[in-house]
Amino acid sequence: MATIAFTGHRPKDIPNLSFAQFAFALDQLCDGRDDLHFVTGGALGTDSWAAEYAISRGIPFTLVLPFAIETMTKFWTPRDTQTLELHATKAVKTIVLQPVGYDVSKYNLRNKAMVDLADVVFAVWTGKPSGGTANCIRYALAQGRPIFNLLIDGALTGKLRPIRSI
Question: Class of 2-162 per CATH?
Answer without folding.
Answer: alpha beta
